[in-house]
Amino acid sequence: MSTTGKLMLGIAGYLLLASVAYWFLSYEAAGSVLLLLSAGLVLITGGYLVVATRRKAPAASAAGSAEPGDAAADHGEHDEYLPHASIWPLGVGAGSVVLANGLALGLWAVVPGSIILVASIFGYARQSRHRD
After folding, report:
1. What is the C-alpha separation between 57 and 2, in angstroms, rounded?
2. Which pick of 40, 96, 120, 131 has the fewest CB atoms within 10 Å?
3. What is the DSSP letter of 130?
């Protein structure tokens, strides 16, 4: 198990205990629920890191045993794909902000926010499918 995964699972356990202690010391529902939800989110992240480390372990040991002239080792068959720099996340953020403000201000801001958000999501998905 990776160090990061252990750290995240430890933080999730701490937040869970803090949630229980907060409930019994203050009897406030909102704070207890927020601490409990925070523990759940950190638990999801830690669980993902643990699973990702276990999946990667056999591939790393196989790559380490490969000879230098091996085609799979030379071409990085098990490398992860990281997308190039993109403008689309800015559009997703701007569309989300306009849409969220539109929920409070009115339909005149919801429609353009929705259009910007949907167009940016489709553009980002289209760009991520085309690898160089």
Report:
1. 10
2. 131
3. S
